[in-house]
Amino acid sequence: MLRKKLLVQLSLAALMLVPQTMKAQFNWPYKNVNGTLVTEVPQREAGQQSAINLATPKLKVVRVAFVGLGMRGPGAVERWTHIPGIEIKALCDYEKNRADDCQKYLKKASMPAADVYYGENGYKDLCKRTDIDLVYIATDWIHHFLVAKEALLNGKHVAIEVPSAMNMREIWELINLSEKSRLHCMILENCCYDFFELNSLRMAQEGLFGEVIYAQGAYRHELSPYWQHYWKNGPDDKLGWRLRYNKDFRGDVYATHGLGPIAQVLNIHRGDRMRTLIAMDTHSFNGKKLVEKFDGKACENFRNGDQTTTLIRTEQGKVMEIIHNVMTPQPYNRMYQLTGTKGFANKYPTEGYALSASDLKDAGVKPSSDKISGHEYLKEADMKALVERYTSPIVKKYGDEAKEVGGHGGMDFIMDSRLVYCLQNGLPLDMDVYDLAEWCCLAELGSISMDNGCLPVEVPDFTRGHWNEVKGYKHAYASPEDEAKALADAKAFTAELKAKGAKYWAKMDKKGGNKKGKK
């Protein structure tokens, strides 16, 4: 009896060591209301305010720390060295050598070395610092929320790689933390900054496509070259965190690349909102085989279907279709299709627009022929003229440098630059905590739908009543005078920092290297 009691106590203790986010997956309460599944919406606490159009005091210098330096983190560190008015204060990864290795980007840019944090709790010590404004999170999915919560509780803005929250509990907690703290909680959805998406967004905003009534997005990316490269927790971990997550959880667990850009076109929580979704998936065929291949034993249950399709209807009667498939052979495809009452935009597999000659004329573009109709893609000359007429101001400002710096063709650099621009000018960010919530909720809500015979699920109003206050999605800009001053201050700071960094590295080279490091 005593031995049994001891085993129970040890089991409970072991559970306490598991990150809380892993114990609370996909168990948000819901009920069936006349055939529609409705999830619980927590009350906003007294004194807590909406974060719609949240703007915070200007940051002359953005002092940033990076957590998670495995696959995507190092690229972010390198990109940030090209942005004026930033200081990289800390680097953190579970494995110390990964953080240490990122010092090379600072040295190359003549920026002083950053403090290094590592181990299971390194990010907690990092977040306690008072000289950091922003924590940039590029860990595995399981730690996105854990690091973000710690940073927000310690007074830092957060920018979180996708998916930024893995379930409804995390989503609602991040909303509450952002609203209470009045701090930014941004989803790092880089596909919103791809050139085609930015230009098409401007076209849609200026009415080129008429009323956009149907929009499609996807993540169709066969990951067989990558499964073995996702971080593994020791030699007994045969699957790695990403394959294991797909094994254990149903639903579109990576919806944001497809959903984010079209949600901006449809003005989600800026005049419209997602109202109802229905999800449907295939059985797991290839996913199950992968687990058996890597694990060496039979896989009795692989939750995520090889392909998942989610249909979402909005308050204003628009429809979005989102597809997730990382298991079957096919060309990379994010779809990005906009079907409007006057025109059509499509990125994958054929990049182009369909408009009539008369609509082109109305848009200020001289068509190559009066016979052009919406039944076929525009010819190259017409498309070029259209894009030149409607090039996004963001593409004009950052496009050339973004192509040089890189990061998924430059869209990562544009995303990072816009984040810094908004922080330095005290503006609302391009993507707020409600975007994060809406784009990440398809995982658990889709699972609820499919686990109940594909019943419709009501998408909660994550703004809790504020979705219709802003009329139309827009990027925020400072006045030309304020923008020029912020940029001048940023460049002056960076020049001083680089002078300091050059001296630092010359000194360290004489001593034999950098020794900064903290557990």
UniProtKB/TrEMBL annotation:
Keywords associated with the record: Glycosidase, Hydrolase, NAD, Signal
Signal peptide: 1-24
Domain of life: Bacteria
Domain Gfo/Idh/MocA-like oxidoreductase N-terminal residue range list: 62-186
UniProt GO MF annotations: hydrolase activity, acting on glycosyl bonds; nucleotide binding
Pfam families: GFO_IDH_MocA, Glyco_hydro_109_C
Cofactor(s) for this UniProt protein: NAD(+)
Alphabetical list of InterPro entries matching this protein: Gfo/Idh/MocA-like_OxRdtase_N, Gfo/Idh/MocA_oxidrdct_glycsds, Glyco_hydro_109_C, NAD(P)-bd_dom_sf
Domain Glycosyl hydrolase 109 C-terminal: 200-351
Family label: Belongs to the Gfo/Idh/MocA family. Glycosyl hydrolase 109 subfamily.
PANTHER family for the chain: BCDNA.GH03377 (PTHR43818), GLYCOSYL HYDROLASE FAMILY 109 PROTEIN (PTHR43818:SF1)
Protein name: Putative dehydrogenase
Originating organism: Hoylesella shahii DSM 15611 = JCM 12083
